[in-house]
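Open question from group meeting: does this chain pack into something compact, or does most of it stay loose? Before anyone orders reagents, we agreed to write out a predicted structure and look at it together. Recording both the input and the output here so the notebook holds the full record.
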Amino acid sequence: SKSAKQKFRNKLRKLTRRNRPGSFKDIVKDINRVTVGWINYYRIGFMKSFMIEIKSWLNHRLRQLIWKRWKKVSTRYRKLKQLGIEHDDALKMAGSRKAYWRLARSKTLHRAITNKKLEQWRLKDLILLYER
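Structure tokens returned:
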């Protein structure tokens, strides 16, 4: 139902607040716990399109959270270089004054923090969980 989907989205929104304390591992562990429980409870329903939508929205929220935690320009530049972004693109991105949500949509940040990278950081794939 719409209310169940909204409650799920609100839980994820609360877990991925930009000012949330704790390490990224703790955040991912909490997200995994909530998503696995929710998917196991509502597994019977037909919600693959909703899972695709939530997965992309959640990855966007996590990129925003990561970008906010890299507070300084030098940290952002260094981390982007570590993740394989070229010098010019990393410098342009690190010095940008645009908002976190907008920058989380940029191609550069998507190349740096891919979905595969998020899975390496222990985030479970919602679509695979649902299809299993």
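Observations to bring back to the group:
The chain has a mean pLDDT of 92.
The CA atoms of residues 86 and 131 lie 37 Å apart.
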